[in-house]
Structures are given as structure tokens and as C-alpha cells.
Design goal:
Blueprint: H1 28-39, H2 43-57, E1 61-63, E2 69-71, H3 73-94, H4 97-104, H5 106-117, H6 121-136, H7 142-160, H8 166-177, H9 180-190, H10 205-235, H11 245-254, H12 257-275, H13 290-309
Antiparallel strand pairs: 1-2
Helix pairs in contact: 1-2, 1-3, 1-4, 4-5, 5-6, 5-7, 6-7, 8-10, 8-12
């Protein structure tokens, strides 16, 4: 290799130390170190806390139960190995953009924590509006805002992929089984405040979004083939190439994991109900001549009552 040539590494090298490299009873120190680093605790304070915990976990000197003093070379070596591994983990933190942003920027740390704790997509949208205003005021950089935007997208996907409630599955099943006319009515009733008593208004915004995804897929499955055939009839070969993108976009929409999961649950329920017959008790088959026997017993009892009265 000549003097003017230089070698560059592409990609990222694996971490030299991880929590698995620590002794089993000291692995929690890795999480404490990462949390303190991201919270903005000074490095000296972090190591003071680590050393205090190591003295408790692996005491080097002290007294036994009998009162005699001891010195443990093994615990001293365990302290050294644990401290070396934690130093390597802390060194990786310095090169981690997210952890360093959490440590150095209070606005980024506050918004990221709120986004991760959000349980509603509407709340995430409001937080991102506030983050954009903070970016405009210069409280965070563009890179920090982009990282927050990525975290918000990931949190939305987590919420939208969460298990649905029984009410949401009931609405999805109703949409799947609905006719075209009933589908139009459901679309009207579920929209806005057209029908405030509709069940969709009892769901969270995440579940409402997933129900509307099924509604959109159901309507598209009905209308798109008609529209496409109509356009081919009118335009023929003169149909613009952009229109041929519609089936591809629709198929990609149907491939959403959360949409496929919801539809598969409904399909499995329908198959299970078709396999298992109704468990309601069947009406008893009347025996031949039973009505005549009842009439005879009633007439006999009446005759006995009349004789007693005489």
C-alpha cells in the first residue's frame, strides 16, 4: 500500500463489551449506567455510584460472621473485570447519537420520553407539533428533530400493531360481512359526529384508524375493479400509464401487517364458528300418543275431584 492510500471501514463494528460480559449479579449496572448517562448525570457521579454498588456486590475486605477479618482477591478481580466492561459500555455511549442527544439536550430528552410513553396517536401528533415549535425557537437542531420524527413513527406503528379490543373486532367483522349498501351506511355513521352513538366513538384513536383501514380496503375492493374496467372501456389503450399504478398501490395497502392480522383473525373466527355446530339444546321430539295420555290424565283427575265434592 502506498503512502497516499488510506483504508476506510464500512459499516459498524460490534460493541466490544455488552451486559452479557458482566457477572450475572452485576448485569443491572449496565442499565443503570445507560440511564444515568442519558439523564445527564456527570461522569464522576456515575462512577461514584458504580464503585459504591461494586463494594456491596463484591466486598474485598470486611469481617466474617465469626468476627475475623478477611481479604478477597477473587472479589477484587471481579470488581476490576466489571469496571473494565462498564468502561467499554460507557465508551460506546459517547458514540451513540441518540444517547448523547438525550444527555446534552433537555428538550430532546423531554420530547422523546413523552413520545415513548404516549398511548394515543393524537398525543404523538401534538408532541411533534410542540417539537417543531421548539426546533423553530432553536432549542434543538435539525438532526434532533429528525430523530424525534423517527421515534414518533416507530411509536405510532407500535400502537397501531397492538392487539385490538373485542369491540373493534366486532366492527371489523361487521364491515367484512356488510353488503355494498350497508357499507355506505357504515361509512356515513362512522364519520365524524354523524352518529354519536356508534360504537366506533368508544374506541381509541389507534383502533379507529385500524377500523377505517379495513373500511377503506373493503370499499376499494368493490369500487376499484369497476373504475378500472370503466376506464379501460372508455380510454382503451389510451389509458395513461399513471393509472396502472392503482392496482399496485392497492395491493401494497393490503399487505400491511396489521391489516392482514386483523382480517386473518376475523377469518379464523368465521371458520371456527362454521366448524362448531350450535350448542343450543334441541327441542324434544314429542312421542306419539303423548297428548292423548295427557288429556286422559287430566279428565281422570277432574272426575276424582268431582266425586270428592259429592
Amino acid at each position: 500500500m502506498s503512502a497516499h492510500e488510506r483504508t476506510f471501514a464500512c459499516g459498524r463494528v460490534d460493541h466490544e463489551f455488552t451486559a452479557d460480559d458482566l457477572p450475572e449479579q452485576a448485569r443491572f449496572l449496565s442499565g443503570d449506567l445507560l440511564r444515568d448517562y442519558a439523564s445527564g448525570v456527570d461522569i464522576e457521579g456515575i462512577w461514584d455510584e458504580v464503585n459504591a454498588k461494586l463494594d456491596v456486590l463484591f466486598p474485598v475486605t470486611g469481617r466474617t460472621a465469626e468476627g475475623s477479618r478477611f481479604f478477597s482477591q477473587a472479589n477484587l478481580e471481579l470488581q476490576r473485570l466489571t469496571r473494565d466492561a462498564l468502561e467499554g459500555i460507557l465508551e460506546d455511549c459517547f458514540g451513540n447519537f441518540h444517547l448523547t442527544a438525550m444527555r446534552n439536550n433537555r428538550s430532546y430528552r423531554r420530547f422523546y420520553t413523552s413520545i415513548r410513553r404516549a398511548i394515543d396517536t393524537k398525543a404523538i401528533g401534538e408532541l411533534m407539533k410542540q417539537a417543531y415549535e421548539a426546533r423553530q425557537d432553536g432549542k434543538m437542531s435539525v438532526k434532533h428533530f429528525i430523530a424525534l420524527n423517527t421515534a414518533a413513527d416507530n411509536q405510532r406503528e407500535r400502537l397501531l400493531s397492538a392487539p385490538l379490543s373485542a369491540v373493534a373486532y366486532r366492527l371489523i367483522e361487521e364491515i367484512v360481512r356488510a353488503s355494498e349498501k350497508k357499507l355506505a351506511y357504515l361509512g356515513w355513521a362512522m364519520y365524524g359526529d354523524n352518529d354519536p352513538s356508534h360504537l366506533i366513538h368508544t374506541l381509541s384513536s389507534c383502533e379507529q384508524t385500524r377500523v377505517w383501514e379495513v373500511m377503506t380496503a373493503r370499499k376499494a375492493a368493490i369500487l376499484l375493479p369497476r373504475l378500472y374496467a370503466r376506464l379501460l372501456t372508455i380510454c382503451g389503450r389510451g389509458l395513461p400509464e399513471a393509472w396502472f399504478v392503482l392496482p399496485t398501490v392497492f395491493s401494497e395497502f393490503l399487505e400491511l401487517p396489521r391489516l392482514r392480522k386483523a382480517l386473518s383473525v376475523i377469518r379464523n373466527k368465521r371458520r371456527a364458528s362454521a366448524r362448531n355446530p350450535s350448542s343450543a339444546p334441541k327441542p324434544a321430539v314429542p312421542m306419539r300418543g303423548s297428548s292423548a295420555m295427557k288429556r286422559g290424565s287430566v279428565a281422570k283427575s277432574r272426575a276424582e275431584v268431582a266425586s270428592c265434592g259429592q
